[in-house]
Amino acid sequence: MKCPYCGWNESKVVDSRPADEYTVIRRRRECESCSKRFTTYEKIEEMPLIIVKRDGRRELYQRNKIINGILKACEKRPVSVKDIEEMADNIEKELYNTMDKEIESKRIGEMVMAILRKVDDVAYVRFASVYKQFKDINTFMEELNKLINENSQIL
Description:
Elements: E1 11-19, E2 24-31, E3 37-43, E4 50-52, E5 58-60, H1 63-73, H2 81-97, E6 102-104, H3 105-119, H4 121-131, H5 137-154
Parallel strand pairs: 4-6
Antiparallel strand pairs: 1-2, 2-3, 4-5
Helix pairs in contact: 1-2, 1-4, 2-3, 3-4, 4-5
């Protein structure tokens, strides 16, 4: 590791510890030339995910788009920011675990709907109405009736 102070190419690791919930290793290093210390971080290189949109366009995966969509659906609902971040974490983990390099946006939308359905019915309906692009009140009511029937079967 190149020293940021003198540019020397050799350093020794003085201390290592996990960081960021064990997803990163923090290393304290000491330059063998000038003896100054500096910190480096080691992280697993994640393969970039490409999202295939409905119209065929491809774009890089952006976590904030999932969070923003969930935030809008959960606005003025009893869902904490921590819960929203956990939902995004779970979706992201599932996406990376598939080992697919390209993922259809439809699949992500379905994952968000499945999680919201378990967390909050109103947030689910809000998200579904935008995601499924309800064209009229009848398609909206069909989705609501499905939700009502499923909830009555659970009780």
